Amino acid sequence: GLTPPHTYRQATKTGSDEEEGPSSGGEENITNPTPHSSPLALTRLLSRSRSSLQTSGSSPGDKQGSISLPHDYNPVALLTAVETLHTFTGPHADTTLPATGDQLSQAAQCKQVVAARRHQEMQVLGCLIVEMFLSNKLRLCGSAPVFAQRLSICREVLSANRDSLPRYVRSLVTLLLDESGGETPITSLGTPSPSAHQLLQPSLSSPLLPLPPYFPTLYSLVTSLHEHCQAITLLHRLRETHPDSEEILSASVQQLCEWKVQSVAKFLQQLVEMPQFSVDLVQSYVLQMMTDPDTAVSAAWYLFDPIARLLGPTASAKVLLEPLVRLYDCDHSLSSPRQLKKRIKLYHRSFLLRLIVRFRLRVFLDHFITPLVEAVGGYHDVDVALTTGSIEQSDDVEEATECPSVLSPLDEDSSADSEKTPVVDGKSEAEVLETDTELEPEVFVLETDDNVGELNQSEQIASLLLDLQTDDVEDSESQRDTPTHELTREMKEQDLATWSTDTEVVEEQKTEYNKTYLLEVSEVGVASMQWLAHRLGPVLTATHLSRNLLRMLSLCYAGQGCSQVHHSQLQGDDNAASVLQCLTSIVGLYGEQFIVLQYLPATADVISLARKKLTSSLEAGVVAHLTLLTHCMPQLTDNTLHQLFQEVILSRVCGPALRLISSSRQLFPGLVSARRAVVLKLVDCLHALMLRATTQHKIALVHTISRFYLAFSKARGQLEESRGDDQVSKVKEYESAGSFSPPQSNTAESDSIKSKALEELASVMTEELAYWSYVPFANFFGEPLMEQSLKNHALIKQLCSEYLQSCDKSQTENGQIFDQQGESDVEDSVGSLGTNVVIIGNRIDLQEPSLGRSASPNTSVASEDNPDNGSRRLENNSRHLRGNWLSYWQHEVGHTSSQLNIKQIRLLGFSGHGNSVRSLTTLDNENSFLSASRDKTVKVWSLRSMGDGNTTCPAQWTYTGHRKSVLSVGFCEASRLAVSCDSVVHLWDPYVGRIVSQTDPTRNPPVNTLRSLPAPSHQILAATTDPTLRTLDSRVGGYVNEMKVAMSSAGLIRCICVAPGGTWVALGQASGFLTVIDLRTGTMLTAWKGHDGEVLQLVAVNDHTIISSSLDQAVSVWNALDGKLKFNIKGPTEPVHCLDLYNGELVSGTTANRIGVHTSIDPSASFSSTRLRSDSFRGVLTTLQVLPLNRILLIGADTGAITLIC
After folding, report:
1. Could you tell me where the Low complexity compositional bias lies (predicted)?
2. pTM of the model
3. What would the mean pLDDT of 801-830 be, rounded to a whole number?
């Protein structure tokens, strides 16, 4: 330290009050000056102190006193600091704070209350943590009703059992419980006590609580959601208090709901990419938005895909399937046109693709085909009353088209014949039928897989229509007694003149947007349906699309008013147009066999059932199927039509339909309008047949036409008995010979039914119908042939003349001058065959008739602007069913059993590999697959029907990044990436054709096989030669974990199988050992020696059972949890090196090219085996995959060839 200075006394004659100059000395013990003293007073005090020291310490002998100080000692700096502090504290030293809280401002008081509340909340959080981790210690303390007691108990338990808490919460609990009782505001670490603000800020809470990396994003999501909900709640309150601004506020609420969903979607997209994020944290928020009517559609569009990625297909089906199906339900009420426009996006194919990828194709077909078919048929009717007729069109349809990037480009059809179907712009002005009738209650029950594949599918269609009992139209007696409605031109003009009344205009304005919405949904649904038909293939299209479309077509004509004739067509034709477009597009894609084997049998069965018992549903079914036959007639080739013309079309369709419309023994449920609708559709069908008839068919067709015109005589036979008994006798003879009706007893009731039926028939068989139907026939066949064939030709000509006279009379009364022709014009116009027909090749086409009114307004076939006149040749599409594909399609559509039946029919070949195929992986949609070969390549293939079974397809793309033989290939469903190994693992994108990552061979041992975990896991299991099981994360592209399996190389891992739930993995080793490892903990569950030879293949039946095959020719079933043998499967006599499962059946392949099928996993299961024929498969079988939805096999050979067989 410093040496204290020596002091010497100096004699002076001056007094103690003599002023001294500035002193350079100082004292250590100096009394603190008074707070109000000045710097001059401090200097005087120091001078007196120095004088006293000199007086007391001086010696008599000293002549001159001096003080010795250190060289670097400077007391001036110290004095300056003291004076500065004195100057600062002096004026405020006597200031006192307010003693009571009454003097605080109101804001300060609120802040103190909030701070105290937050402090208590932190203590509550601390108590919760203690109670969770130390619950067994708190049981003896009992329950504390008061929070102070609860806090005291938790503090005592914490102080006694601090080491029992996990380390990562010890310091946090200590700070939260504040054991000091709040007396120490500063902790032992020198930081303030924690607060709510501190814990909610990631930058401040990290020292207290180790939060995961996704916490900031999750916190932002919840904060944004809370702010939007508060704003929406405020707007709802304003809407209640300001009813005059309800429209503006409602629009604001909808916009806020849209922003809320988009905000959540933005943060959720970031959370999906974070490895440690748990979907349970946001699942409740997403479900709430998907069930809220204001946000349901937007939440489905923006949030379904990211949340489904986190959940995986199985969990998504449990959590998200019900809200989405309810969203498609037509009972889901929407309150504004904007929400109606948004619903259109749900039917766009981009959203349907997400449903297929996230739910998988099987779930999609079971739950979403029904609402899509209903949308095509216009069954999603939401009655929204709008007061304005001009609705501003939004861009939601275009927004749906410009959706985010498609999930899987490979899922899109990439070949040339699978071009994209553009979304039809729903803004075009189409004629919308105006009707005040209500739609029929929804009774649309579509087919599920429980009844798919029965032998006679058309009979199932007809029987289901018989069960669809709708409410019959109840008409009063006064309605039945009304005069017959004749379709005269005069009444048509009156209808057009009086159609728009004031009331109807208002009603039209109210429902205009609703109808526009239905048209737009139907157009988008048609485009999506056509896209699905391309993707699904012929079998799934027939079992799920066309069957249900046939049911929907019948429902388009069901209900009150749908059979009414308006503007020369039925009111149900508008809805049926979209369904017919889908059905005909399926025929254009897969060929006329859909007509021959599905449409025509369904039509015949519906008419047959209608003749036995006519209901309103079957009545609509007859109209619908006759319309379908008319539209499909031009798509039949001449050869096919020649085979079907008489035996099927005339005998099973037209003949029974003629007997149905002329029957007097049963009434139509829809009365006159229903019978008229069937008659008009039958006339359309006969006109279509007329245009395609050849010379051989003319006689049979004319005979059918003559039977049709006998119905006119039958109708006049009751009402006009004066025409002669000969005509009546002809009608009775015709009815008894060709009519089939249920036996009726001779009672008054049967006579009444017959009388009413004849009245209906007379109301339908009018002069106008006779004219419009007869003229085209006479122009085509010629007057002599018609006169010779028709037994009542004179009656028909008389009816035509009466109709022309009535038309001339009505036009004369209205003051209009037309050049009308009489009966002689009819004779002149139909007198010869060659005046109005032209021969094109071996086909006769009808030209514009010479008579001005010779084209029927009730038929679109004879219309001049209809392109379907005659034969519409189908394009030479390679996907048309023929050869082996036709045989396979016929077998699957009429298949009655769900068991796999291998017929060894070759469907398609795939060539491109130059060496043995080692591994095959099929995508869930069964549209594409991957193959790995010894030629160092992995190829991507497209699965689609084409050719006759002998076609060979090239690969869509080839990955050439491997340097050795590729040993295994897989597909990570969660990341949508392909993974393959040749001792080095390659992770690559099959959709864009680029490598993502690959492991470093210098740092990691070689990999001999791999397997990806089921979604939502992004991990891939790779077995190395150590042997070690390593886990590779596809998001980071590297290994994240490893599990040692055996200590010797004899335990080389040959095969891997994963439990369906992803909880454990089973390994088959070269030494015959089997090992099961728990993937949740990384521990070994069990290991045992199961075979004497090398384990060749493993498959997991369920979460408790595995099946193994070995070189010792044994196929064994084991308990995966304890390794106990259940039983050995008998059957194969060679080593089984290929195993796969199909609906509880075991499919096996041996080294001798034998494919076997066990009907179940049971000791007593039956076994069938077949050896692959050389004409369908060449080479040695190396790998096998089952496509369960289409029930076909994909097999690879040592020659590099891949074959698709059924």
Report:
1. 37-61
2. 0.74
3. 57
